[in-house]
Specification:
- The longest helix is centred in the N-terminal third of the chain and has 19 residues.
- It contains 2 helices and 8 strands, in the order ααββββββββ.
- It is globular, with a radius of gyration of 23 Å.
- The protein has about 140 residues and is an alpha+beta fold.
- The strands form 2 sheets. It has a 4-stranded antiparallel sheet, covered by helices on one side. The chain has a 4-stranded antiparallel sheet with strand order 5-4-7-8, with no helix packed on it.
- Helices cover about 25% and strands about 45% of the residues.
- A hairpin with a 2-residue loop joins β2 and β3.
- Keywords: Signal.
């Protein structure tokens, strides 16, 4: 009887520490993780700065029908221009890029059909100068 109780207690402590997780619990955890990813991939994003912090962008990304829309705002604090880059991947496997430049502050909306992933980064002083880190926004 003691052996049965000890084995039950040991199995319960292993399950509590996460060493042994049932397949149902693993599936629930995986489903919760994928739901979180979907919720964070759409909506508001930013402030994403250039590497020298002289320009930044922020905005909102949403899907309507087959198109993904991005409404973004850019701000920079000098006589030089700020640049925002958007890199995207199509569902079929192709890729593409586009950029916009602005001086002072700017507000713009664009859309594209059939993409599965969208990334952005901000540069300042030139298309390829002082670029900040890349962020996935959709």
């Amino acid at each position: 009887m003691r052996k049965v109780l000890a084995a039950t207690a040991l199995a319960g402590s292993i399950a509590l520490t996460g060493l042994a997780v049932s397949p149902a619990a693993q599936a629930a955890t995986a489903a919760a993780g994928s739901t979180t990813q979907a919720a964070t991939s759409q909506g508001s994003w930013g402030k994403y700065y250039s590497s020298n912090k002289k320009a930044y962008t922020y905005g909102k990304t949403y899907k309507q029908g087959y198109k993904v829309y991005t409404h973004w705002y850019g701000k920079e604090y000098s006589p030089k221009k700020g640049y925002v880059w958007f890199r995207y991947e199509y569902k079929g496997g192709g890729t593409g890029k586009r950029f916009y430049s602005w001086n002072g502050q700017y507000d713009h909306t664009w859309s594209i059909k059939g993409i599965s992933k969208l990334y952005t980064y901000t540069c300042w002083g030139g298309k390829y100068k002082y670029c900040g880190s890349v962020h996935r926004i959709y």
